């Protein structure tokens, strides 16, 4: 049927509406007039982004809040730039293809220099919050020219400048300095995971990348002319099939299909150059993805073509013969299931895609931008300088379906009365009194709150900016109840898991937790451990990069709640970590300690590492794994006694390489800890020969204020008892300490001592006969050592 415009918004329900109107209503003579092609509308229609090109370069965002009273000071996604760095595009991630949970829109802002910012809109936090900033490109000199998202892939075309050392390129080769790249991208529990960069195509011309379904289309630069063969065709890349399809606008079948294993553009098209050189294909004026793998293309001949998923190019519709696209001709395209909407200038064409029949032609008062709304993909939506509109189908009387504000108010009053009338019947049937209930008595009495609450919700829904919120909450509750009643075991488990996650996030995000709430939280973790752990990760926004690093983007208030001095609050999460991600426990402790240092949370209570150790000891885990985690927890704590305890555990396990690593790391922390560690190591050296490969490393840790006497006393004190009269020369394979092993250490210490003692260092350099006279105390100590140490020749 025919459609009629129905205004959804005049922008007054968007924050900053006056500025938005001013931006869109600049005179055409103004050089700084905003182009509608630089406006983006989010899939839910609640966010409008405007890319500014001149005179200022930046981005302005206008948001429609479901709860305006919560958005008195909203966090807006507005950015401005200096030095010519501009925004390439703003697009929205489809969380259905990712692992994102909860509500909210995730917008990605990509800059020309390769920077990408991931922002999430949180209604409860009143605005946009930065999740992560990443570099898409490997080279700092690369320049992004176009970007899109295809399922869980970020795909972009970047310009890579020629090396300064390379010879000057020809005009043709100079145009082949671009490459098309990709990264895997997942948003999970508030964290963004970006995969490594992979090159799809290189040595190619400038392409505009467009995502449609499971395909990425590479169109030649629309601003470039078609003198060169490299601009006479376009490509379609299928990540799923790992293949390229080469097509042109003057042929309705693909020129060639080939594997994407060949990523060099020049080799890819080498067989087609002769054929392409003879073609004169029409230019592409405008395009729009169909969402199911295809593209809608408007050519300079006035023909509207549909590029299908299989590579076939099909004619759809022909504009008037006098259509001559100019550089300043405004065009906008969008596909709504089987209907193509096309704006040329101020004329809107609605076309049936399957048969090419023009359904309707509508004259617009102003230029407009077509966009899709995820809530109703069959209906065309339009943005103009006066607001947002939908092209609703007319009913049999010729009126547009949908209520105007006046009709909405009138209908709302009727519905409110209907609510109270139904309530009267309901309560009267269940009343034991003979008194007749009336609508007025229900409204004034105050005894029956249900109809009053429902009427209030309905008024808000119809009359205020709170539309849909309360009603959606009630509908969601009814659907939840119905799913629990009707669903099977798996459905009930899924619904229960969702409820558990919401409750944990709510409790951890609350400003205070009393004893009763904490018991409630403990019961949730006990009864639903898996769902509670997932919710805790979401609340703390934990991100593990795979290389041992754990980070959190949660607000300090959330961490304050986690580290609260209530009993079992922190161990609660430690139990979940040990159960589901035991390898994370040391890094989780480190993260907790950093958060504790930055706030007053957890002061004057049991240290966090001891709470974590208590949890570890109470769980039935593998002994070897538990000991390894115990050592890591002790070391992460950074406390001297804990470090020494970890060192003793490693010594008992005879993990000498790890022992030396720990010693080198922590001897730098404090002189006192250095002495304790060195004493423990020297004790070990005195008792066996297993540390021989590491002696040079250990001697380097000797405290500065240690003397020869101090070292000899330590060795004598810890040397094991042996036979009273050992042989003068020990077996080369003996485990006894030889004085030759101590030479480097004693030499080092003697060299640090005063000059008068310097001459005695020669004793260790070369044994002379007879040696110089030794001080009496040193002579006695060496004679005592000879009774215990075997002297090597």
Rg over CA atoms: 37 Å
Content of β-strand? 15-25%
**What's the rounded overall pLDDT mean?**
79
State the helix count: 24
Question: What gap, in angstroms, lies between the N and C termini?
Answer: 108 Å
Q: Which structural class best describes the helix and strand composition?
A: alpha+beta
Total beta-strand segments? 32
Q: Which runs of at least 5 residues are low in confidence (pLDDT < 50)?
A: 68-72, 164-168, 395-411, 464-468, 723-730, 757-761, 766-771, 788-793
Percentage of residues in helical conformation: 25-40%
The number of distinct structural domains comes to 5
Global morphology? flat
Quick one: biggest sheet? 5 strands, antiparallel
Protein name: HPS6 biosis of lysosomal organelles complex 2 subunit 3
Organism: Poecilia reticulata (Guppy)
Domain BLOC-2 complex member HPS6 C-terminal: 417-775
Domain BLOC-2 complex member HPS6 N-terminal: 6-391
Features:
793 residues, alpha+beta, Methylamine Dehydrogenase, Chain H, 32 strands, 23% strand, disordered C terminus
Short description:
The protein is of the alpha+beta class.
Question: How does this model look, in words?
Answer:
This protein has 793 residues and is of the alpha+beta class. The protein folds into five domains: 85-163 and 174-280, no CATH class; 282-392, YVTN repeat-like/Quinoprotein amine dehydrogenase (Methylamine Dehydrogenase, Chain H); 411-486, no CATH class; 489-637; 640-719. The protein is 35% helix and 23% strand. Strands 10, 11, 12, 13 and 14 form a five-stranded antiparallel β-sheet that branches. It has a five-stranded antiparallel β-sheet with strand order 15-16-17-18-19, with no helix packed on it. A four-stranded antiparallel β-sheet has the order 1-30-29-28, with no helix packed on it. A hairpin with a 5-residue loop joins strand 20 and strand 21 (295-299). Helix 5 packs antiparallel against helix 7 (449-463) and helix 15 runs antiparallel to helix 16 (623-637). Residues 68-72, 164-168, 395-411, 464-468, 723-730, 757-761, 766-771 and 788-793 have low confidence and may be disordered. Residues 417-775 form the BLOC-2 complex member HPS6 C-terminal domain. Residues 6-391 form the BLOC-2 complex member HPS6 N-terminal domain. This is HPS6 biosis of lysosomal organelles complex 2 subunit 3.
């Amino acid at each position: 049927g025919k459609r009629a415009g129905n205004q959804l918004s005049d922008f007054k329900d968007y924050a900053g509406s006056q500025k938005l109107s001013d931006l869109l209503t600049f005179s055409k003579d103004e050089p700084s007039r905003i182009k509608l092609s630089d406006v983006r509308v989010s899939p839910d229609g609640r966010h409008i982004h405007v890319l500014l090109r001149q005179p200022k370069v930046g981005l302005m965002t206008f948001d429609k809040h479901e709860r305006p009273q919560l958005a008195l000071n909203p966090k807006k996604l507005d950015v401005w730039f200096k030095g010519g760095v501009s925004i390439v595009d703003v697009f929205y991630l489809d969380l259905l293809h990712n692992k994102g949970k909860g509500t909210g829109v995730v917008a990605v802002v990509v800059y020309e220099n390769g920077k990408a910012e991931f922002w999430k809109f949180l209604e409860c936090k009143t605005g946009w919050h930065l999740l992560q900033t990443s570099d898409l490109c490997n080279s700092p000199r690369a320049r992004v020219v176009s970007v899109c998202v295809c399922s869980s892939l970020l795909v972009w075309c970047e310009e890579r400048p020629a090396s300064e050392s390379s010879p000057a390129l020809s005009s043709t080769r100079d145009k082949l300095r671009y490459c098309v790249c990709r990264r895997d991208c997942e948003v999970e529990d508030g964290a963004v995971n970006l995969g490594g960069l992979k090159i799809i195509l290189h040595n190619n011309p400038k392409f505009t990348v467009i995502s449609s379904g499971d395909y990425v289309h590479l169109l030649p630069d629309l601003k470039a002319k078609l003198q060169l063969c490299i601009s006479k065709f376009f490509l379609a890349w299928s990540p799923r099939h790992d293949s390229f399809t080469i097509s042109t606008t003057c042929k309705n079948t693909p020129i060639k299909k080939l594997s994407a294993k060949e990523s060099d553009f020049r080799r890819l098209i080498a067989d087609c150059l002769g054929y392409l050189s003879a073609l004169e294909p029409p230019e592409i004026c405008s395009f729009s993805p169909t969402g199911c793998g295809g593209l809608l293309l408007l050519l300079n001949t006035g023909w509207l073509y549909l590029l299908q998923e299989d590579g076939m190019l099909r004619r759809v519709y022909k504009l008037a013969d006098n259509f001559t696209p100019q550089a300043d001709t405004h065009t906008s395209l969008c596909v709504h299931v089987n209907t193509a909407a096309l704006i040329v200038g101020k004329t809107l064409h609605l076309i049936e895609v399957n048969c090419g029949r023009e359904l309707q032609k509508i004259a617009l008062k102003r230029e407009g931008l077509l966009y899709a709304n995820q809530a109703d993909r069959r209906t065309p939506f339009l943005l103009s300088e006066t607001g947002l509109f939908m092209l609703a189908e007319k009913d049999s009387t010729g009126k547009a379906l949908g209520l105007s504000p006046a009709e909405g108010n009138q209908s709302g009053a009727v519905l409110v009365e209907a609510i109270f009338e139904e309530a009267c019947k309901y309560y009267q049937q269940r009343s034991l009194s003979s008194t007749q209930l009336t609508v007025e008595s229900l409204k004034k009495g105050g005894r029956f709150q249900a109809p009053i609450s429902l009427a209030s919700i309905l008024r808000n829904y119809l009359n205020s900016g709170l539309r849909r919120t309360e009603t959606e909450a009630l509908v969601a509750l009814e659907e939840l109840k119905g799913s629990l009643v009707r669903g099977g075991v798996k459905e009930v488990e899924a619904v229960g898991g969702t409820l558990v996650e919401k409750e944990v996030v709510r409790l951890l995000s609350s400003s205070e937790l009393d004893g009763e709430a904490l018991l409630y939280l403990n019961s949730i973790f006990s009864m639903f451990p898996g769902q509670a752990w997932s919710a805790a990760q979401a609340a703390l926004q934990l991100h593990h990069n795979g290389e041992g690093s754990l980070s959190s983007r949660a607000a300090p208030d959330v961490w304050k709640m986690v580290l609260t001095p209530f009993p079992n609050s922190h161990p609660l999460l430690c139990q979940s970590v040990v159960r589901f991600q035991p390898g994370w426990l040391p890094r989780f402790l480190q993260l907790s300690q950093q958060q504790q240092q930055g706030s007053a949370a957890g002061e004057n209570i049991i240290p966090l590492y001891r709470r974590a150790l208590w949890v570890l000891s109470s769980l039935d885990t593998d002994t070897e794994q538990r000991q390894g985690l115990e050592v890591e927890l002790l070391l992460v704590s950074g406390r001297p006694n804990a470090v020494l305890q970890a060192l003793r555990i490693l010594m008992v396990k005879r993990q000498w390489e790890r022992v030396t690593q720990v010693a080198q790391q922590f001897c730098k922390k404090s002189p006192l800890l250095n002495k304790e560690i060195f004493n423990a190591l020297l004790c070990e050296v005195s008792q066996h020969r297993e540390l021989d490969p590491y002696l040079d490393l250990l001697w380097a840790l000797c405290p500065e204020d240690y003397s020869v006497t101090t070292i000899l006393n330590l060795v004598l004190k810890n040397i094991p008892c042996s036979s009273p009269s050992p042989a003068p020369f020990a077996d080369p394979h003996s485990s006894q300490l030889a004085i030759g092993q101590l030479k480097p250490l004693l030499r080092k210490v003697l060299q640090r001592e005063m000059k008068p003692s310097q001459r005695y260092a020669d004793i260790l350099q070369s044994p002379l006969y007879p040696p110089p006279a030794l001080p009496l105390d040193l002579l006695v100590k060496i004679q005592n050592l000879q009774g215990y140490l075997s002297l090597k020749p």
